[in-house]
Amino acid sequence: MVRLEAGQVQIPEGFNGVVTAFCQGSGARLAIRRQSRLGLREIYLQLLDAGKVVGILWRRAKTFVVIGWIFFVVSVPVYLGIAALAGFNKFYFPAHPQATLDAYDIRASYVTLAVGALAAVTSSIVLALKFRATASLLVIVTWPTIIAGNQVARSFVKPGPDYYERHVGAETFLVPWKYVDVGFGGSPLEVSSEDGFIAYLCFSNLHGRTDPDCSLFQQLRVLSKEPVDADLGLKAWREHRSQMRPGSDYDGYQSFDQSYRVQADRPGQIQHYFVRMNSNGELTRLVECRLDNGKFCTHSAHVGSRWFEYQGDLADGDETLDARLAALVESWRRK
């Protein structure tokens, strides 16, 4: 027996472990009960907070619906402006690497306006049906979701290529997007042609699109040495040279005139050709002019292994310009 002081219970020695285990078990049960009470209290407080939130949504439903309409009205000029700017860039610079982002911005702007209008109308209808908290939630959830969603989705849009592959015979050229041949509103698709390719540039400084110092872009055709059937001027020269009448020389050119009729009952027309040849009698430059004063001409220049064709007056083209064009095109060739 274990003797205890006055006021204490006397416990036999053999029952010490039993009593200890019993006390420990009771303490655990008390702790569980205490934790359960605390858990229920937390749940109650959370429900109470949720109830407060629902109460705010219910009481402020009209305010949230009005805010939804304000967001929609303000977003109309904003997103229409974004779509207009993106549409302008995509139309005038379709080969720009940002064109894919412009296309996304256009679609996203229209989707945002449609969803915003739907949310505003739906929240008004739900409010009229007395589902006040639901009407508030429609406004609160819609606008943050669509604004954040647009930005997240835009981050996954890949820019377009910086270069486009073009071919001249067996040679491959990587033409920068600023020079690639694409019209307004067109699509700069990959082109593979044995006849060559077309580039657009400013002849004064050989810069491409987006150059603020150039107001006139001209077309440059790059053709292979043989065949030259893609160049109608060269083809006409070779096929009808024997029928042409020699004229007077002009600024190092030999001139030839070809008479022809478009229709039998119409007056005849004259096509003027200005030619330069090397010491071997091979054609190095052919200029085909439509007027007697040397205006509105097509230049075909043989430089190295390629032919260059571009438009301009007779005095605009020379070997210096041809050499600059050849160096630019050579820089695009895949080594």
Automatic annotation (TrEMBL):
Annotated transmembrane regions: 64-88, 108-129
Alphabetical UniProt keywords: Membrane, Transmembrane, Transmembrane helix
Top-level taxon of the source organism: Bacteria
The protein, known as: Uncharacterized protein
Species this protein is from: Bradyrhizobium zhengyangense
Taxonomic lineage from the root: Bacteria, Pseudomonadati, Pseudomonadota, Alphaproteobacteria, Hyphomicrobiales
